[in-house]
Amino acid sequence: MTGAGGVPSEAGAVVGRRIGIGLMYGLWRPRVLGAWRVPSAGPVILAVNHSHGIDGPMLMGTAPRPVHFLIKKEAFVGPLDPFLRGIGQLKVDRSAADRKAITDALGVLAQGGVLGIFPEGTRGEGDFASLRAGLAYFAVRSGAPVVPVAVLGGKDRRSRLSPAVPPLRTRIDVVFGDAFDAQEGARSSAEGGGGRRAGGSGRRTRKALDEATVRIQERLTAHLAEARRLTGR
């Protein structure tokens, strides 16, 4: 389902959320902490660590609002292609600057929606140790707040389904952190020096994006450490 200008519609993501709720709570045992920290309205970026093959669907089923995820194009194969598109998910080519994916993602935020991103780019240790610049770009360009999310648990047991999928009925902790502005320090400096930031379009110089990336990584890493402390993971 697509809305104005070809941007995935909220209706599709609503359907995806319902499917995610049914599957994730039916097959695993999610424990959600801090969902109230996600702003109830307006554009939001969920920055999620990525260590399971179900992290995307898990967020779709546990987030308090419908989520449009940027998903690698390799997942859009066969019947999954129209299905993922139908539930409002965004296909991205990770091998190049995918202009359509960028436009669609910014469109979701411009319409006040929720964009889900795995800032590590691919599934790995899920520790936010290596971030790509894409998250910073969307945060700076849109001005949307970033909410860090830690998905923890299930990696200490082998699954019969796949090494990337936690065993069925395993408890998975989903911990939402406090929303923050990726340009917080840069904006206060600019305002103090008479700088100007127009609307939701922030400074997009390489220096600004690099600074935002460092700021984001610090916040995400701190949230992950706190989430592990809270959950004992």
Key features?
233 residues; alpha/beta; seven-stranded mixed sheet; globular
Task: Describe the overall structure.
With 233 residues, the protein is α/β, with parallel strands linked by helices. The chain has one domain: Glycerol-3-phosphate (1)-acyltransferase. The protein is 38% helix and 15% strand. It contains seven helices and seven strands. The protein has a seven-stranded mixed beta sheet with strand order 1-7-6-2-5-3-4, sandwiched between helices. Strand 3, helix 3 and strand 4 form a beta-alpha-beta unit. Helix 1 crosses helix 2 and helix 5 crosses helix 7. The longest helix has 26 residues. The chain is globular. 40% of the residues are buried.
CATH class: Alpha Beta
> In one word, what is the shape?
globular
Helix content: 25-40%
Mean pLDDT: 85
How many domains, in number, for the residues?
A: 1
Secondary-structure map:
Elements: H1 10-27, E1 29-33, E2 44-48, H2 55-62, E3 67-72, H3 80-86, E4 90-92, H4 99-110, E5 114-117, H5 134-142, E6 146-152, E7 171-176, H6 184-192, H7 206-231
Parallel strand pairs: 1-7, 2-5, 2-6, 3-4, 3-5
Antiparallel strand pairs: 6-7
Q: What would you say about this model in short?
A:
With 233 residues, the protein is an alpha/beta fold.
